[in-house]
What does this fold into?
Amino acid sequence: MKKIISVLCFSIFLSKICSAQQFSKAVTKESFTEWNFGVAFIESVAPFPGASFLWGKTHTYENNLIFEYEGGFAFPTLVTGKVGIGKKFENTKAVIGIRPFPFNIYGQMSIAEKENGYWIASIEYNPLNPKIRTSVAVINFGYRRNFELKKKKSIPPSL
It folds into this structure.
């Protein structure tokens, strides 16, 4: 009997969350270009400089959850990209994610947001086996210029 009541309560709770999420899909989509420069820390080698130019999109949801992805050109790897999720706190965005190539886990923060863009800083770490990783860690700084694409408004629930 306790299991049935627990499952019923959980089902009601889950259905309330799902229906609330259905009507909170208001999204701000921003397209951006980003220029980064940084230093890679490679085992047995002095810190190595690098740079990248990326294009991407940021989706900011009503609850300030962020999903973003980007890809572009880089030196010395030629191509690169990132996918991350995070949270917007007033004018600051904090994102964690994965760079598939070269593989890194990263944390990124926005700094000094202006109307059309903002500075960013990120720290990346490569947890792979030392024999197959290209770098141990990377520190990046860059500027992201936003181009607003589209704003959707919430749809009120129908009765």
